Backbone:
C-alpha cells in the first residue's frame, strides 16, 4: 500500500473502516518469511501503530494453503538469520510488543515454526478448517527464537507444548480449538468475514480502554500474578480520570440491549 514504504509485493496492507489487514503475500512459497517479507512486516507493524485510522489489525496469509511455513529455507541455505533477529530484542518481537492495537490472526492454512510464532504473537487466533499448526524447530535443528517455547506453554499448557515442540507433530484446527489455542474454527470462505466481525465488535468499544486491557492482559502473561494485578490497578486508577460518568447510563443500556439481541 502506498501509505507504507514497502518493498516489492511480498506483503499487502489494506485499511478500511478502522481495520488493517496484513497479508503475507508469497503464496507459491507458502508465505515463507524471506528477508524482504520480514522487513516489510516490520515496516507495516511500526506504521500501523502510528496510524490513527487503524484500531484493529488482522494478520493472514495469501492463498488457501498456508498462513506461513516460517523461514525461507532457500535463503537459509545461503545466509542464516542474523543474531540481532533472535530473542526478545529482535525487531519482530519488539514490533509486536509495541503494538497497542488488538491483533487477530486469521490462520488460513499451515502455520509452521516461524509462522506459528507470528500467529501466537497475535491477541486472538481464528482458524480455517484447513489450518494446521506445527513447531518443527527440533526437526530442522534450530531453537525457536521469537518466543514460541515460552508463549505456547502459556496458551495450551506445558505438557501439550512439550509434546508439540519435542515431536514436531502437526496439530489440526479442531484439536487446536479444544486445547484453547484458537478461538474458533470456521470454513475457509468464512474466515475473513468472521475475523472482520470480531474486529468490528472491538472497534465499537472505547479504544483507550481496549488498549489498557490489552496492556493489562499482556503484562500479566509476561510477569507474575502480583505484577499483573498491580498493573491492572494502576490502569484502573488512570482510567477514572477520563471516565464519563454522565454518559454511563446510556452506554450501559446499549450494552444490555446488545446482550438481549445476541441472546435471541
Residues:
Amino acid at each position: 500500500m502506498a501509505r507504507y514504504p514497502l518493498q516489492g509485493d511480498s506483503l499487502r496492507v489494506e485499511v478500511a473502516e478502522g481495520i488493517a489487514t496484513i497479508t503475507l503475500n508469497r503464496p507459491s512459497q507458502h508465505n515463507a518469511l524471506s528477508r524482504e517479507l520480514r522487513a516489510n512486516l516490520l515496516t507495516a507493524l511500526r506504521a500501523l501503530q502510528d496510524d490513527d485510522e487503524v484500531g484493529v489489525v488482522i494478520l493472514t496469509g495469501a492463498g488457501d494453503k498456508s498462513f506461513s511455513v516460517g523461514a525461507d529455507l532457500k535463503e537459509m541455505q545461503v545466509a542464516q538469520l542474523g543474531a540481532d533477529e533472535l530473542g526478545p530484542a529482535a525487531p519482530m518481537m519488539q514490533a509486536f510488543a509495541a503494538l497497542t492495537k488488538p491483533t487477530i490472526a486469521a490462520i488460513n492454512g499451515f502455520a509452521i515454526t516461524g509462522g506459528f510464532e507470528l500467529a501466537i504473537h497475535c491477541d486472538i487466533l481464528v482458524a480455517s478448517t484447513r489450518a494446521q499448526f506445527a513447531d518443527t524447530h527440533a526437526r530442522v535443528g534450530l531453537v525457536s527464537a521469537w518466543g514460541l517455547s515460552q508463549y505456547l506453554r502459556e496458551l495450551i499448557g506445558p505438557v501439550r507444548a512439550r509434546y508439540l515442540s519435542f515431536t514436531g507433530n502437526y496439530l489440526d484446527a479442531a484439536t487446536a480449538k479444544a486445547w484453547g489455542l484458537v478461538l474458533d474454527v470456521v470454513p475457509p470462505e468464512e474466515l475473513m468475514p468472521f475475523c472482520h466481525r470480531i474486529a468490528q465488535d472491538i472497534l465499537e468499544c472505547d479504544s483507550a480502554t481496549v488498549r489498557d486491557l490489552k496492556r493489562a492482559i499482556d503484562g500479566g502473561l509476561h510477569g507474575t500474578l502480583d505484577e499483573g494485578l498491580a498493573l491492572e490497578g494502576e490502569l484502573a486508577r488512570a482510567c477514572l480520570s477520563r471516565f464519563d460518568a454522565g454518559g454511563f447510563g446510556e452506554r450501559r443500556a446499549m450494552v444490555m440491549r446488545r446482550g438481549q439481541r445476541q441472546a435471541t
User: Anything to note?
Assistant: The CA atoms of residues 1 and 58 lie 15 Å apart. The chain has two domains: 11-203, 207-263. The beta strands are 11-16, 19-24, 56-61, 66-68, 103-107, 110-112, 124-128, 132-134, 171-172, 184-186. The mean pLDDT is 88.
